[in-house]
Each structure stands twice: as structure tokens, then as C-alpha cells.
Write a structure and sequence with these properties.
Low-confidence stretches: 19-32, 43-62, 65-77
Radius of gyration: 48 Å
Distance between the termini: 156 Å
Biased composition (Polar residues): 1-11, 42-55
Number of helices: 9
GO biological process, one term: [2Fe-2S] cluster assembly
Helix content: 55-70%
Structural class: mainly alpha
Shape: globular
Order of helices and strands: HHHHHHHHH
Family: Belongs to the HscB family.
Mean pLDDT: 76
CATH topology of the domain at 175-245: Monooxygenase
Number of strands: 0
Strand content: under 5%
CATH architecture of the domain at 175-245: Up-down Bundle
Domain J: 83-160
CATH class of the domain at 175-245: Mainly Alpha
Region (Disordered): 1-21, 42-77
Length: 258
């Protein structure tokens, strides 16, 4: 009886150790289904690898493009006009003479000037560009004042060719013309009543118109020497015009420059 009891106890102990060992193996080894085991054993195909690489490359490209777009781009410097004529391409589509006429459409010139000045006004510029805007606005004003006046326009065109007729030393040597200028000046000084200036002003306007006509012809043909002489002549007539505008009773004409 005792032997049988001991054998039964040993069998029960072995059975308990076996069950414990199985339980421990089940706890330490995670359960994997048959489908997952087959998928894990399969080798990745070249197509799937290529797809993964393509996706990775596309993602990298998008990231680089996004970074490039967000990074500040260098600003291009605005090209400033080289001559007064470049400011007004609508009035002077072909540029300065001889490509275009010496006398422009003054209404069109003023219209374009006002449009340009409205866009370039310093008040329209950001704070950090105020100084540049003021300089540009000043250049536009100078260009307009020069091109609207026939004498300043002629002097400017000649200066572009290296010919200076603004200097007071540039004078005419024609005695007949000098006599005509002196007589016109004396006529203004001798006026007693403002009504007498009407005929003198009309006569001087004719002189100015004749000079402008000569300038139109000489600049169109490229005769710069003759254009320079006529610009000096026009300067005399414009001085007479200033004298007429500056006339005061009992004092005669205003200051005149020769």
C-alpha cells in the first residue's frame, strides 16, 4: 500500500511539472497566426522595394520644394531709365530724336507724367524705401520739366551728344541777330502801358516758333552743329519772353540773361 501511494505521488508530481512547463512556454512565446508566419517568411519583391523608394524620393522632393518656396528669394533690382525719354515710353515710343519728333504731344506727355508720378509718389512707398522713392520722384519731375520746354529739351539732347550750349559763354556771333535781340529788349524797356506788350509778345512768339521749327528739322536730320546754333538763338528769344513776363510799369522788362 505504501509503495503504491509513493508511486501515485511521484506520477502526480511529474504531471504537475509538465503542465507548469507548458504554461510557461505559452506565456513566453507570443502567439503568431499562420498567415503572419507565412508573410514574415516571404522575401520582399523588387516591385514593392521600388515603390517604397519612389515614395521616399517623392516625399523628399516635396520637402525640398516646400523649403525652397518658404526661403526668402533675392529681389531683382529695378532697372532705372537711362535718359529722360525712357520715363515716357507712351509719348516717345521710339526714344529721342532722330527716332522720334523733336516736339512731343504735350498733352500726352503731361498725362503720362501724372500717371507715373501717382505710382512713384514717395507716400506710396514703404518706410524703408522712402529715400529711393524720393530720388525717383525727383528724377521724374526733372525729366518732365526738361522735355516739356523746347529750349531745355534742345539743350538736353545736345548734352547727350557731348555739346554744351547751356554755358553763358555760348553766344551767337551773327551781328544781325545780335542787333535784333538788342532792339527787342529795348522795345520791352520802352513800354509805358501793359497793352503795348501784346504786339511785342506776339512777335516774340513767332521768333520762338521759327526756332523750334529749325530745331525739329536739324535734330531729325542729325545736323547737330546747326541745332546747337539754333538752341543758342532760342535761348535769346526765351530771355526776351522772360523780360516781357517780368515787365513792370516804370521799370521796364524783368531781368534778362544773355
Amino acid at each position: 500500500m505504501r509503495r503504491n501511494a509513493m508511486q501515485t505521488a511521484r506520477s502526480a508530481s511529474r504531471a504537475l511539472r509538465s503542465e507548469t512547463s507548458i504554461t510557461l512556454r505559452q506565456q513566453t512565446t507570443p502567439f503568431v497566426c499562420a498567415s503572419c508566419r507565412r508573410a514574415a517568411l516571404q522575401t520582399p519583391s523588387p516591385t514593392s522595394i521600388a515603390s517604397q523608394r519612389a515614395f521616399s524620393s517623392a516625399a523628399t522632393t516635396r520637402q525640398q520644394a516646400s523649403a525652397a518656396s518658404s526661403s526668402p528669394q533675392p529681389q531683382r533690382e529695378a532697372v532705372l531709365p537711362q535718359t529722360h525719354y525712357d520715363f515716357f515710353p507712351q509719348t516717345f515710343p521710339s526714344g529721342p530724336p532722330p527716332s522720334s519728333a523733336f516736339s512731343p504731344d504735350l498733352k500726352q506727355l503731361r498725362k503720362e507724367f501724372l500717371q507715373l508720378q501717382a505710382k512713384a509718389h514717395p507716400d506710396m512707398a514703404p518706410a524703408h524705401q522712402k529715400r529711393q522713392a524720393e530720388a525717383l520722384s525727383s528724377r521724374i519731375n526733372e525729366a518732365y520739366k526738361t522735355l516739356q520746354d523746347p529750349l531745355k529739351r534742345a539743350q538736353y539732347l545736345l548734352s547727350l551728344q557731348g555739346i554744351d550750349v547751356e554755358d553763358e559763354s555760348a553766344k551767337l556771333t551773327e551781328n544781325a541777330l545780335l542787333m535784333e535781340v538788342m532792339e527787342a529788349r529795348e522795345a520791352v524797356d520802352e513800354v509805358e502801358h501793359e497793352e503795348e506788350l501784346v504786339s511785342i509778345r506776339a512777335e516774340n512768339h513767332e521768333r520762338i516758333a521759327d526756332s523750334v521749327k529749325v530745331l525739329e528739322e536739324t535734330f531729325a536730320s542729325g545736323e547737330l552743329e546747326q541745332a546747337a546754333q539754333e538752341a543758342i538763338r532760342l535761348r535769346y528769344w526765351m530771355n526776351i519772353e522772360e523780360s516781357i513776363h517780368g515787365w513792370e510799369k516804370g521799370k521796364g522788362g524783368g531781368m534778362i540773361h544773355h
